[in-house]
């Protein structure tokens, strides 16, 4: 009997950005070699009935022949088709006039664009000069072609003054009105992001509860469910159950450009590696995947959430977290040793 559905995201082309908050973690762009895409899918075919294949893990469409690439991703997928989601490359939108036509062809209705404030902070956090201006160019291009932009804004203590000005910028660009002309509301959402990957370094400047600018409160994602670190420490101090991430109906696997295999639970750090596709037998890798039997998950099962709080929680901290993000932060502290 074969296993439940699988999605494979392989880092075939890398990413033009080096975002300071990148939850996957920074890694070099590296060519995976000829035929890597087909070889990867062939490894899993005997074990899964349905395989969605994605040739990107970081930036979608970050290869010059993105049309042919999309067709190839569809052809390599087994028993199902890959999805477009609401993602695109703003790097490419700002450079390639035909790319927006491709997005229309593949029926992309909305595209998410990520800001960190105005020009200084956005350029700093994306890791490239010009990123902010590219995001504005991308916004205009999308609207001109009937595609809705959705602005995502990451907030911390360092960028909050600039971030507070983003709703006014959206008004100045008449985004609410222009989106309504396309039949939908303009969407802006603000959050602090998870505390893993590169964003793990921002724990010291994580936004404090009383410091969210008033202009951003209406846009703060799941604000009612967010808690301060102190509140979560009090809530979970005596929790005896462990926190163990778990696959849903569909297993999602990340393949790094050196063929390491990861779940999509958290960042791509050595402690989360399932194994290596070139070095480990595929049967054993699939067993680890389907039985969720990896050193990180075994370690997670062996420690209670209360113990993690007692070891790593700061009961005096008013840093703001979504509960799930804080659990992942605590577990990663533990796994880092
Ligand atoms: S957050 Fe996305 S765009 Fe930024 S560096 Fe990471 S993968 Fe690239």
Describe the structure.
This protein has 337 residues and is α/β, with parallel strands linked by helices. It has three domains: 1-83 and 247-302, no CATH class; 84-221, no CATH class; 225-242 and 303-337, no CATH class. Helix content is 35%, strand content 12%. The chain contains 14 helices and ten strands. The strands form three sheets. Strands 2-1-7-8-9 form a five-stranded mixed sheet. The chain has a three-stranded parallel sheet with strand order 3-4-5. A two-stranded antiparallel ribbon has the order 6-10. Helix 13 (305-312) packs across helix 14. The mean pLDDT is 96. The structure holds iron/sulfur cluster (SF4). Iron/sulfur cluster is lined by residues 15, 17-19, 22, 24, 58-59.
SS content category: alpha/beta
Q: Which molecules other than protein and nucleic acid are bound?
A: iron/sulfur cluster
Q: What is the distance, rounded to the nearest whole angstrom, between the alpha carbons of the first and last residues?
A: 39 Å
Work out the radius of gyration: 21 Å
Share of helical residues:
25-40%
Q: How many strands, which pairing sense, and closed or not: the largest β-sheet?
A: 5 strands, mixed
Overall form: globular
Question: How many helical elements?
Answer: 14
Low-confidence stretches: none
Tell me the strand percentage band: 5-15%
- Average pLDDT reading: 96
The quaternary state of the protein chains shown equals single chain
Instruction: Give the number of DSSP strands.
Output: 10
Number of domains: 3
**What's the SSE pattern?**
EHEHHHEHHEHHHEEHEEEHHHEH
Order of the strands making up the biggest sheet: 2-1-7-8-9
């Amino acid at each position: 009997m074969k296993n439940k559905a699988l999605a494979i995201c392989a880092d075939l082309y890398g990413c033009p950005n080096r975002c300071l908050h990148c939850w996957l973690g920074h890694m070099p762009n590296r060519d995976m070699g000829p035929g890597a895409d087909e070889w990867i899918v062939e490894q899993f075919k005997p074990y899964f009935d349905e395989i969605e294949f994605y040739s990107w893990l970081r930036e979608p469409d970050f290869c010059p022949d993105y049309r042919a690439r999309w067709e190839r991703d569809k052809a390599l997928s087994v028993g199902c088709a890959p999805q477009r989601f609401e993602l695109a490359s703003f790097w490419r939108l700002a450079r390639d006039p035909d790319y927006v036509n491709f997005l229309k062809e593949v029926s992309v209705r909305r595209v998410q664009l990520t800001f960190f404030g105005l020009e200084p902070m956005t350029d700093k956090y994306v890791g490239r000069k010009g990123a902010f201006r590219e995001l504005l160019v991308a916004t205009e291009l999308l609207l001109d072609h009937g595609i809705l932009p959705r602005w995502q804004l990451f907030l911390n203590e360092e960028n909050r003054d600039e971030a507070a000005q983003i709703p006014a910028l959206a008004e100045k660009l008449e985004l609410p009105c222009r989106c309504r002309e396309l039949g939908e509301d303009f969407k802006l959402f603000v959050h602090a992001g998870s505390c893993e990957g590169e964003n793990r370094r921002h724990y010291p400047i994580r936004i404090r509860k009383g410091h969210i600018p008033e202009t951003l409160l209406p846009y703060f994602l799941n604000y009612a469910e967010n808690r301060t670190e102190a509140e979560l420490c009090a809530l979970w101090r005596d929790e005896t159950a462990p926190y163990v991430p778990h696959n849903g109906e569909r297993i999602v696997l990340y393949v790094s450009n050196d063929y390491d295999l990861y779940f999509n639970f958290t960042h791509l750090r050595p402690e989360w590696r399932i194994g290596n596709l070139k070095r480990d037998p595929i049967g054993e890798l699939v067993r680890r995947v389907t039985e969720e039997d990896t050193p990180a998950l075994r370690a997670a099962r062996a420690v209670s959430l209360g113990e993690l709080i007692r070891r790593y929680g700061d009961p005096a901290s008013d840093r703001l977290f979504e509960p799930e993000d804080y659990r992942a932060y605590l577990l990663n502290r533990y796994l880092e040793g």
